[in-house]
Structure formats: structure tokens, C-alpha cells
């Protein structure tokens, strides 16, 4: 199972990078969250994904350099900067998302409906368990 999950993750990382040289899987994920939330602070991203602030800071800097995100003052606290997608960020995110969906459609095209439903249920269960589990320290299984 570990080998298959690793292969799945490797393919996901590669698909994001093929669409835009600045877009790692983490960057793609952050862009998706910014789209869903309508914008948020970098500290919100770090907390939501249980990432170190320095990791998010590097990703945010790369996304800003690529012109995919911008900053605006928080309407509730003008000392705080909110991150939001730019038009280019919205366009790239849509392209990468569609590319990934098409890859899924191609890979799953021959699957019977029952298998697809079971697979979706398993993924839902896996992701729900991962969302409620506390983060493990590095180096633990």
C-alpha cells in the first residue's frame, strides 16, 4: 500500500509541475484553498495544512513571484495582509485542475461503476481519518 500511495503522490506532484514551472503540489493545494476561501492570511494556510510558517512563507513568495497570488489589506485589520489569487493564478489553477481531472477520467474510464463508488468511499474514509488525526512528528510511521 505504501508503494502505491507514494506512486499516487508522485504523479500528483508531477501533474502540477507540468502545467506551470512554479507550481508544486503544495503550491497547487494552497492556490486551491485560496480560491475556496476567497483569500486568507499566510498563517491561516499554515494552520489549515499543519505546515510550518517558513514553508508557507517560501511557497507564498514563489507564488507571488510567479504572479499567481497577490496581497490586499484585511478589511478587519489593516495591519494584516490577505492573500488572494490573481487572474493568472485563477487561470493556472483552472488549467491544472482540468488537466488532473482529465487524467483521472482516463485512468478510471474502464472501471465499473461499483468499483468507482467503492474507491470514492475509501478515499472519503481515508481523508476523513487523516483530517482528524493529529500530525505525527517527523520520522515516525
From TrEMBL:
Pfam families per record: MarR
Signal peptide location: none
Organism of provenance: Streptomyces nodosus
Source organism superkingdom: Bacteria
InterPro entries with a match to the protein in the record: ArsR-like_HTH, HTH_MarR-typ, MarR/SlyA-like, WH-like_DNA-bd_sf, WH_DNA-bd_sf
SMART domains: HTH_MARR
Every HTH marR-type domain range: 1-128
Molecular function per GO: DNA-binding transcription factor activity
Official protein name in the record: MarR family transcriptional regulator
GO biological process: response to stress
